[in-house]
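Morning F.,

Quick status update on the modeling queue. The single chain you submitted on Monday has been processed. Sequence for confirmation:
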Amino acid sequence: LIGVGGSGKQSNTRLSAYVSECEVFEISLSRGYGEAEFREDLKVLYNQVGGQDKQTVFLFTEGHLAEEGFLELINNMLTVGMVPALFEDDEKAPLINSVQKEATKMGIEPSKDNLWEYFINRCRNNLHVILAMSPAGDNLRTYCRNFPGMVNNTTIDWFTPWPRDALQHVANVFLPSEIEGDVRKNLVEHIVMVHTSVSTFSAEYLSNLKRYNYVTPKNYLDFIDAYRLGLNENQSRIEKAIKRLDGGLSRLIATAKDVAALDVELKEQKIVLQAKTIEVENMLQEVQ
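Structure tokens below.
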């Protein structure tokens, strides 16, 4: 699988393996990981596909290429189906025993060489090697020149940019369902336009400055996710502001009602006060 990083090589591999009911096997790099550790992982892989008779996809990416010598072993896997001198004689015995019963049922003479050949053939049938490489730079060209099995014994699939129809469909699927009508249509067109314009400017960037900028489907999906995240954040912010304003408005309405009630009470008290004032003035005149 040839495509720049983020074009979906690993995602498509895992999806295809799931649909085909195959397990996915990958190496796990660590400090000091070299050819010896890679050979040990390959032993585990061959025991799985040959000894346990499991359909397995061996996914090897450019990120797994800690040493270029790994490709020499993979080249042997592609051309002859087995890495030479991978197993010692004492390690072959349990693998041969694991296929002896099945080989006997197939009418194969149970000799050591015949059983080992049957084991290798079962590995070839169960093992699917997928190399995920990037065309950027000269590395891939060098690998193919030095290890011809990568070209002669593989089917090469190129991951090209998504067409406009695919971009529109993906955006339409991932946008929130509450966006409808013309707003949704215009938003989809805008997202597609932004993504395709970056590809156009990347070509100009290469022409003017001789530097590459790759635009991948992952960038497109991240762009849509960023929009959805920004939309959710703004919706949450606006909803909080609405609740805050609604709370303030409710308090203002309640305060206005209280003020109106106090105003009525004040008018009543004012009448009482005026009556008391007149009464007091009359009493003062009588006293005088």
